[in-house]
Design goal:
Helix 1 packs parallel to helix 3. The relative contact order is 0.17. Helix 4 links the parallel strand 1 and strand 2. The longest helix is centred in the N-terminal third of the chain and has 21 residues. It contains five helices and eleven strands, in the order H-H-H-E-H-E-H-E-E-E-E-E-E-E-E-E. With 271 residues, it is of the alpha+beta class. Helix content is 25%, strand content 22%. Strands 3-10-9-8-11-4-7 form a seven-stranded mixed beta sheet, with no helix packed on it.
């Protein structure tokens, strides 16, 4: 979720021409609609701030590539995307029914222009197998380059204090309790807060997970913060409480707060 490829860099300053990337961590928005809506809102605000300070970027406009899921909750998310980014031109590829439905949803708003484009002859939908292959290939390209021109590094991350260094912390956004049970009426159960960052203990299932390196200064900022880049877990050492990860650059990561989703790579990146 962002406007470009992500490499380790400094935290976003709105006058800098660098990618703005936020890590959702899942392959489908149905995993957590609350988080993706919140991140889209933050992303739209950050991009607008960039455009306000850069006349060339402002005149160029934005191109928003939406999710292909256009039924039920997927349709609601598509409508929200148009509103959040204030899109004035909406191109609908080969789905006249969808264009009509969108026009009905925005019937009272004149600033949206909906255009249906025909699909090119011979175009077929990508099946789930192809999507998994393509996604895994992009993960491999991130670390090794399209033509294997990059050389990533294996880095050991300690999750307990080691040589006086602050330990790394791993969090997953969504699923934490919204309020302690002591603060609720008798007999009530705490509801689940889908936007809360909950700390995750190390476990073997973390192997092959893709982690986002958050720029957040504290746990409360993690939902709204952009990420510096990504690392892939190649080994889990529960006894020593550490992870060995594949990273784009050597040395310590830019921050100690890491984000876990459900995204994993299929092939071994390190053999």
């Amino acid at each position: 979720l962002g406007n470009g490829d992500c490499i380790f860099d400094q935290k976003l300053e709105h006058d800098e021409l660098q990618p703005i990337v936020m890590y959702f961590g899942h392959v489908t928005p149905s995993k957590n609609f609350h988080v993706i809506r919140s991140q889209m809102t933050d992303l739209a605000q950050l991009v607008q701030q960039k455009c306000d300070q850069d006349p060339m970027a402002n005149s160029a406009g934005w191109i928003i590539n939406t999710c292909g899921w256009v039924e039920e909750e997927g349709y609601d998310l598509l409508v929200d995307t148009c509103k959040i980014f204030e899109a004035d031109q909406v191109l609908v590829l080969g789905q006249e029914r969808l264009q009509y439905k969108l026009k009905q949803s925005f019937n009272e708003t004149k600033k949206y222009n909906f255009v249906t484009l025909p699909k090119s002859t011979g175009i077929v939908e990508r099946d789930s197998t192809f999507r998994r292959f393509s996604r895994d290939q992009k993960i491999r390209n991130y670390f090794f380059g399209i033509n294997k021109t990059l050389s990533p590094f294996t880095v050991v991350l300690n999750f307990t204090e080691h040589d006086g260094e602050t330990p790394y912390k791993l969090y997953q956004i969504g699923g934490g309790p919204q309020a302690p049970i002591e603060a609720l009426p008798i007999g009530s159960q705490p509801s689940i807060d889908p936007t809360r960052a909950s700390e995750v203990s190390l476990h073997q299932d973390l192997k092959r997970s893709i982690l986002g390196v958050s720029f957040a200064q504290n746990v409360q900022e993690m939902l709204h913060s952009n990420v510096a880049g990504f690392v892939a877990v190649v080994e889990v050492d529960l006894e020593k409480q550490r992870l060995t990860v594949l990273a784009p650059s050597a040395g310590s990561l830019p921050n100690k707060l890491l984000i876990l989703g459900s995204l994993k790579h299929v092939d071994d990146l390190v053999s």
